[in-house]
Amino acid sequence: MKPFARIILFLCAVMMLTATVDLPDWADPGSPASTHLSPGFIEQGYHETATPNVVTAVLADYRSYDTLFESVVVFAASLVVMLVLRRTSTGTSRIKHFRPKREGRDTILRGAAQSIIPVMQIFALYVLFHGHYSPGGGFQGGVIFGASFILLSLCYSLKFAMQRFKEKMVLICCACGALLYAGIGAVCLAMGWNFLGYAGLAGLLGVTDVMARSHGILAVEAGVGITVMAVMVSLYYDLASGGDMEEGL
Amino acid sequence: MDEFFFFIVAKYNYWASLILLFIGLYGMIAKNNLMKKIIGMVIFQTAILIFFVSIGVKWGASVPIIRFFPDKQPLLDATAYANPLPHVLILTAIVVGVAVLGVALAILQNIQRIHGTIEEDEILEDMRK
Amino acid sequence: MMDQTPVFIIAIPLFASLLLTLIGPLGPRVAYGLLIGALSLSLGASLATMVRVVQTGQAIHYYMGDWLPPMGIELVIDHLSAAVLVMIGVCALLSGIYSMHTAGQDNHDRLNNYYALFSLLVTGLLGMASAGDVFNLYVLLEISALASYGLLARGGGKAYFATFKYLVMGTIGACFYLLGVGYIYIMTGSLNMADLADILSRESLQESVSIRIGFTLIILGIWTKMALFPLHAWLPNAYSRAGTATACLIAPLMTKVSVYIMLRMMFTVFSADYIFNQIAWSSLVIYMASAAVVLGMITAFAQRDMRKMLTYIIVAEIGYMTGGAWLANTAGYTGAVYHILADGLMTLSLFMAVGAIIYRTGDTSANAMQGIFRRMPITAAVFLIGAASIVGIPPTCGFFSKWYLLQGAVQAGAWIFVAALLIAGLMAAIIFFRLLEAAFFGNLDDEGLSVGHSAPHSGTGAVQMREAPLTMLVPLAVAGAALLGLGIYTNEVVTYLIRWSVPAGF
To answer: Would you say the ipTM is above 0.90?
Structure first.
């Protein structure tokens, strides 16, 4: 079976590599990908959404339906990991996990963590809310924010982190972020526009359609950020402790 | 020979990502250790991300964030910015990859707990008992 | 302001799944009620959409976020997707109602999270059936795949390893699809299906190697997802080790929706002319489909475990649909599409009937069928209808789909497929005759009693073994009636829905 698989893979590789003859050269400005849709996004995006970062505008407005399901994907991942791993009894294990004992007070480690975590969290908020003007947005900000909690539990202990960000709260945040996103879509629907048509927020916020889109992007990015942050923490809690929430890495 | 060389250089992004892709696929199919299968899966997914993101590059273009002239007028010239669409697609695909990786690791932990091993042949033996 | 019903089909189960996570602690009854309510509303929206599509005779386009395609994402619901949406809605609602007892039994804790995943899976499937954008399809494919990994892994024990294999194969499939989309995107610069079809029909791209590779990768990815014959190894273990409620949802829907995606890709994004004249694979695919049909049925015959037997029958049914789609004529296409609808209901009713028998006897082997007709008459009757449909006995819908497929195969001159269809029908008859014989004439006193005693849910013993609870019986009876109904109204289904979606060029 294995030599067979190797041969098949090798043949596929040769076939696909020779087929690159047909593809446009690297960084060719005249390639179909660069001339069909992308000029439209670049040239109209700023006027239609008031968002200089075109990637953010496309992500959270033109293709916001994709992004909604993207936040739902991570939400689903946290649900699945919890359903698969979470358990209360530890008796079923055939192999004992090796966990190093922490002795003494890691003064330097904890001191460093104490000073770095607030900075991380503020930077995460900056990345999230500055996504209109610079690289950044909900995912990046959410991941950095989630990493601050993971750092906390690495430098202290899982229990210490879980006292500050409880498991139930994590799950609620996972659902609330995605709910905020979908809810904004539903509000637009209720205002007489299509699902996720942020121009529907204009009447509520008292701004022009273009600015309403900009605000809509910000709000859904915040929703994505909340979900991603909570999912990162939830995945860490479950995977690092093997599901029993006793002790982390 | 020169032509072949130019052919590769002009399209090296496809070559790099496709070779990476087949390394990952080989790991997924041929490796016996389930953790190595997961590593292969991550390489495979990353190769596709590189493939996609390399489409977005344009000669002489910068990041797709609108720049402004000193008089606050935006520079809206499509040739000045890289193609934003592949970046958007890849952001989505990265997140999907992370989600799948998390689920795979969770299932792997349970396999190890139940069968006591993560080697495929040993698991099959354990299941026959 | 456009008609908003299409978005409700998808948004309602999505909201339900998010809310189920939040209000879960209120108790299992609330969770169950919310799930059933959401699935019914979504089914209602699907039905309303289908009625509108049939009345106006044209596809409904819904622009997400008010952006016109190809810049934005659109939902497209034409005759084909409307039929598939209703099929998904019906199957999901029935298996949702059915799950009341079995899901609680498999998930003592976290029932609300289980139901949240259940609802997410349905969201993903409905989204796939209505997607008008190839990348959006990928995201929804992954949502439904992730939810199904979670649900299947709830089976515990050996299910983990089977799910892991499914995860690896599913990821390969989805990544191949994504890579194929990448090739197509490089060559065309678009992601919208209608726009892609427009660009791909240009003369300059007909000969392109990259487009051909992109198409191959997409089709290979979908075949992996739908477990076509050489790529089917993951399916039987993953499905047969899952909990009953999970199996009843996933087994009828996941593979059928993948077949739908294959049809979409073949005939909406690419064209019949491109596939059957430019890429001349169809004879090879017909061979693969015939092999799937025959080998699937033979392996099913060799199984003692009833659920495993049914999963091999799914592998064979996938062969029917693939073969029908690649026959390149109207009858074959009609048979394939009709079989998506029919097979969803057939698999659902068989899995539900077997699930009910397992629920009462606690035995998954064919022994559990002993004397079922006297003990659980309604369950046995539905099982009989489902079996008749798989074998292809009129007036069940299985007969009509096989009739169309045979007609198409004869027209196309694909005699190997004709032979495979006939052999498979015969094999199915033997398989089910064996089971039904035991069910009719099985000995109540000897084996039946011993089976009954080992049962955890049958009360004090086999003597008191009775019909399954009402929440299981009602969906069972509805599914059985739907099998007959779909068979009786075949003509209407074909005239009003399927004939409209027959691609140009046949």
So the answer is: yes
